[in-house]
Sequence to fold (360 residues):
Amino acid sequence: MKSTSGYRIAVLPGDGIGTEVAAAGVAVLNALAPRIGRQFELQHHPAGAQHYLDAGVALPTATLDACRAADAILFGAMGLPHVRSADGTEIIPQLDIRFALDLYAGVRPIRTFAGLPSPLGDPRAAQIDLVLVRESTEGLFYARGRGVVEGDAVLDTMKITRAGTARVCDFALNLAQQRKARGKRGHVTSVDKANVFASMAFWRAIFAERAKAFPELSTEDAYVDAMALNLVMKPWAYDVLVTENMFGDILSDLIAALAGGMGMAPSADIGDRYALFQPAHGTAPDIAGQGIANPTAMLLSVAMMLDWLGHRDSDLALTDGARALERAVERTFADGAARPREFGGSSGTADITRAVIERL
Ligand code: ATP
Fold:
């Protein structure tokens, strides 16, 4: 997979602040490359709502092919509120990529940073360090494009399969095991609504089956409504969470708030063969074009990409690079070198990017 000239990264900046934070990610990768002795061949490809307006297609086949040919995909954000399909839904090529490349595990890590205030008053908020794993290929999102309109009633179907649930539960359990080896708790919470839905009771049974293979981990089941409460009341009590697609969609925004907002929340969409890395936020049309988007989510996503590639190829230079980038972000905030606007500061995209690069 690795090309001879280094790692080939397909860059899909997309729309709105996606293009601004993608530029920040590229700048940091270019700054990091000589420091870790690796080359990144960064190839930009068009896709998104603006491309749909310009060229009539949101995700060109050539872009999807380039994603398949690359070592990893670095994705900005896509979608614009005024650009919609005939049925009223937004143009969301990231969902098409997830399905096309079978990126079934949506990985959403959240942590707090010294030097930045938490929206929670409890001092234990400083200990927040959890990862939400969202199933990304079925669940309620299976209904996308398949809604059945019957007069005044509309039916959207939730699909839960044994294979789809088993693989994402295994992913979360393996992740917890890797985290445990790095000193984390080794605890997995499966989030469902098994008291109401047959599909969710099925999910719960499969999680229990898969967890048997990980006796060194502690596991529990929780209802999604209780988790909405607990993730605000005591988020420091959680390590790895795994859940259905729609629940994961909602809870990942909730946990992003714990870290100070969408600009602080990285993510990865990982399958058995391909992986895509992107900030958890959208295109933020309200702040696009002003140079004020917080690039931290993107920079932490770049660190996740380096970590994934490093593990895939057993390339320590990349896993070390991931740690170096995380530490540079930590020091940027701990030193007070930059403060994003969501935290009452005035640092723009370029200020934060520059401060991180200085600390690499
Ligand atoms: P989507 O539906 O694609 O998730 P959205 O419009 O619902 O998109 P976002 O685009 O993520 O959500 O924006 C939600 C809020 O968070 C907005 O107020 C936006 O300005 C803010 N926001 C998102 N990303 C950032 C960022 N990187 N820096 C600062 N603020 C951000």
About this structure: The mean pLDDT is 96. The longest strand covers residues 7-14. The pocket of adenosine-5'-triphosphate is lined by residues 17, 21, 79, 261-263, 281-284, 286-287, 293-294, 297, 342 (CB under 6 Å). The radius of gyration is 20 Å.
